[in-house]
Automatic annotation (TrEMBL):
Residues covered by the Nudix hydrolase domain: 1-137
Designated name of the protein: NUDIX hydrolase
Cited PANTHER family: GDP-MANNOSE MANNOSYL HYDROLASE (PTHR43046), MUTT_NUDIX FAMILY PROTEIN (PTHR43046:SF14)
Lineage of the species this protein comes from: Bacteria, Pseudomonadati, Pseudomonadota, Alphaproteobacteria, Sphingomonadales
Keywords: Hydrolase
Organism: Sphingomonas morindae
Any one GO molecular-function label of the UniProt entry: hydrolase activity
Length: 139
């Protein structure tokens, strides 16, 4: 997975809930005010796993080992035509949820029911589709 890519996102599930956050609602911000998942843009020569795990730590204060990423798929980039990104899925434990320290990006975070995230009109549509892909194939 060392090919060029733009970024990576992560679905972290605990039972039938999913870690998500509501993006800031600033003019010009991509997906402003929508419910999003942890992740973001690549920095330097990071691998997809390094990108998504760094972003998770920056956004939620959580440090997970790469082997916690149990599913992955390459997709077209949500924000950069012609580029691509990676989508991962994994599990989060109750103690990790309790240890979340929300960063400076976004309005708030929540453990949303997966079914609610998939139906929300104010969630990032591409991520809803990717979560559905994972759910259809999860081990």
């Amino acid at each position: 997975m060392t090919e060029e890519f733009h970024g990576a996102k992560l679905a972290l599930l605990h039972g039938d809930t999913l870690l998500a956050y509501q993006r800031d609602d600033r003019p010009g911000l991509r997906h402003a005010g929508r419910w999003d998942l942890p992740g973001g843009g690549r920095e330097g020569a990071e691998t997809p796993e390094q990108t998504v795990l760094r972003e998770l730590e920056e956004e939620f204060g959580l440090r997970l080992a790469p082997d916690r990423l149990i599913w992955r798929r390459r997709y077209p980039s949500m924000d950069h035509p012609g580029a691509f990104g990676w989508f991962f899925a994994g599990a989060i434990e109750a103690g990790e949820i309790a240890a979340i320290r929300f960063g400076e990006e976004g309005q708030r975070w929540a453990m949303l029911a997966v079914s609610d995230f998939l139906r929300r009109a104010d969630a990032v549509p591409a991520l809803q589709a990717r979560v559905a892909d994972y759910l259809g194939e999860r081990p």
